[in-house]
Hints:
By secondary structure, this protein is an alpha+beta fold. The chain has four helices and seven strands; from the N terminus they run βααβββαβαββ. The model has no long low-confidence stretch (mean pLDDT 94). Pfam families: Acetyltransf_1.
Amino acid sequence: xxxxxxxxxxxxxxxxxxxxxxxxxxxxxxxxxxxxxxxxxxxxxxxxxxxxxxxxxxxxxxxxxxxxxxxxxxxxxxxxxxxxxxxxxxxxxxxxxxxxxxxxxxxxxxxxxxxxxxxxxxxxxxxxxxxxxxxxxxxxxxxxxxxxxxxxxxxxxxxxxxxx
Length: 164
């Protein structure tokens, strides 16, 4: 599926569609994850602020997939990855991850970082296939077990490997 990526600012007329896509993709996950996703409290105003502080990207018109990229000192954080159910398994999530890598390189960030809930093993497989590795497991307040996994992808060449 060939869809050009589109960047959205805080005043983008497509922001409500991104907001709806994120909510529709994350809401069903609450039956699988504990604690429930914080996306339930994501307002349109908060999404606009996130787009202003970082970068909101989508694929398709109307949006079929989207992600929010947030620059940090040593990485670019990928959040709110959402792909419409009808567009899943068509490579859109991989395209968003590749776009994030392009943006990280353009912003001179040495790594990509993202988080996923422990229960979402199909997402973990997608991230590993894209070159991410698990770096940490964290626990939400009030839980006695890990609830989230941090994945990272280094964009700096590994100088310890021999080229012979």
